[in-house]
């Protein structure tokens, strides 16, 4: 394998695999897929995956600290597949504009749940 390919593959594995070099790894479970470090559905409002919590200042915020769903390999891959299908012929800024639609993102979440389930347990 040429060096440029190795370098690129390392970058892909860091993003798509278990990023054991991250100072926060594992933030959910050992062997998690880190592709969705920042969940594309946040805040999903799904009480099977997260909950509202109070901050120190008394305001509330959505917490997905106990959600492992998006970090499961089959779920992470299916989310990516859904997103790529919608954006495959788009430039990056246009794709982000499309995906910046909450209703669309919740539809993607629903589609993934139908395909792979929504079990939030290991």
UniProtKB/TrEMBL annotation:
InterPro entries tied to this protein: Zf-like
Pfam families (alphabetical): zf-like (PF04071)
Sequence ranges assigned to domain Cysteine-rich small in this UniProt record: 15-88
Name of the molecule in the record: Cysteine-rich small domain protein
């Amino acid at each position: 394998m040429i060096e440029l390919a190795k370098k690129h593959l390392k970058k892909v594995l860091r993003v798509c695999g278990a990023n054991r070099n991250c100072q926060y790894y594992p933030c959910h479970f050992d062997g998690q897929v880190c592709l969705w470090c920042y969940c594309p559905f946040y805040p999903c409002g799904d009480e099977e995956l997260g909950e509202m919590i109070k901050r120190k200042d008394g305001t509330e915020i959505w917490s997905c600290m106990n959600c492992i769903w998006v970090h499961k390999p089959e779920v992470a891959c299916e989310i990516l597949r859904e997103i790529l299908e919608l954006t495959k012929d788009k430039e990056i800024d246009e794709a982000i504009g499309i995906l910046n639609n909450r209703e669309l993102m919740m539809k993607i979440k629903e589609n993934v749940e139908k395909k792979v389930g929504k079990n939030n347990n290991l």
